């Protein structure tokens, strides 16, 4: 019994040591990173997440901005740095930086596509139906700050993931719907059926193409020979072989017999006055 308690105590000590190491590593990542702890605190990050979802995305949606007209409506304000001269009432272009524009366009497109699944009543109740319910942040393996904000809708919730640099500027924004296990299985089943259907359709098309090969590339089929033609060719070949191998100058009667046999087989009258009769073997004793 004492031995069991000793083993249990050692295991608990190891688990506590591992958890302490993990907490220390997370604390070190926060304090030793490129992000000032006093500036990048929980409150500031929550305010930023709300500003992105509520101040930017929801307002853009209410203004009628879509992924299709995003460039026409917001390129100037997001990509161009413009200074205004109050004295001369003139504007001067200081520079163009498309990185911020591209990040917000990608993030807004992702949020826009997830909006239907998140669920909301109408445009007037959009602000009340969508809200940030929870915000957390961590550092990835490259030391970059990652913000996870939970967006709550009337149908589903979603995770809005924001990557921030040390200037508090986003480098990437994405929104992913949180689905139940049943919904995930349903989507997996539909994807499987679609994949199998596509595979069968491709196989059917390939089979049809192969079946058309004889029509386009087969040409004319060779005419099937009848038994009569085959027999005639065989006899002709036999006669030719005999003619090549033997001298038939003294065998006129044999040639006449073969010709008469061919004529009889073809159903025509005997040629050259020859008639086919049965041949009987004559006994050699008749001379005696």
Automatic annotation (TrEMBL):
Keywords: Cell membrane, Membrane, Signal, Transmembrane, Transmembrane helix. It comes from the Bacteria. It is found in: Cell membrane. It holds the Pfam family OAD_gamma. One of its GO terms (molecular function) is sodium ion transmembrane transporter activity. The chain crosses the membrane at residues 193-217. Its main location: membrane. Residues 1-22 form the signal peptide. One of its GO terms (cellular component) is plasma membrane. One of its GO terms (biological process) is sodium ion export across plasma membrane. This is Sodium ion-pumping decarboxylase gamma subunit. It comes from Butyrivibrio hungatei.
């Amino acid at each position: 019994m004492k031995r069991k308690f000793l083993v249990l105590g050692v295991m608990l000590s190891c688990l506590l040591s591992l958890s302490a190491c993990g907490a220390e590593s997370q604390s070190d990542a926060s304090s030793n990173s490129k992000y000032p702890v006093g500036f990048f605190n929980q409150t500031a990050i929550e305010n930023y997440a709300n500003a992105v979802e509520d101040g930017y995305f929801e307002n853009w949606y209410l203004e009628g901005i879509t992924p299709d007209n995003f460039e026409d409506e917001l390129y100037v304000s997001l990509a161009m740095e413009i200074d205004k001269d109050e004295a001369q009432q003139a504007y001067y272009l200081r520079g163009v930086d498309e990185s911020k524009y591209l990040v917000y366009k990608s993030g807004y497109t992702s949020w826009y596509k997830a909006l239907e699944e998140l669920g909301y009543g109408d445009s007037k109740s959009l602000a009340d139906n969508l809200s940030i319910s929870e915000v957390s942040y961590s550092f990835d393996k490259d030391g970059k700050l990652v913000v996870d904000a939970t967006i709550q809708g009337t149908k589903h919730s979603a995770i809005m993931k924001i990557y921030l640099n040390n200037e508090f500027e986003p480098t990437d924004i994405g929104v992913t719907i949180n689905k139940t296990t049943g919904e995930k299985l349903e989507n997996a089943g539909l994807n499987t059926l679609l994949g199998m259907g596509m595979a069968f359709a491709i196989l059917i098309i390939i089979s049809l193409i192969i079946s058309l090969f004889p029509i386009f590339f087969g040409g004319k089929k060779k005419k099937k020979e009848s038994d009569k033609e085959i027999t005639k060719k065989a006899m002709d070949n036999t006669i030719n072989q005999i003619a090549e191998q033997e001298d038939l100058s003294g065998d006129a009667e044999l040639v006449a017999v073969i010709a008469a046999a061919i004529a009889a087989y073809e159903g025509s009258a005997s040629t050259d006055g020859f008639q086919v009769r049965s041949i009987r073997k004559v006994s050699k004793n008749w001379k005696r």
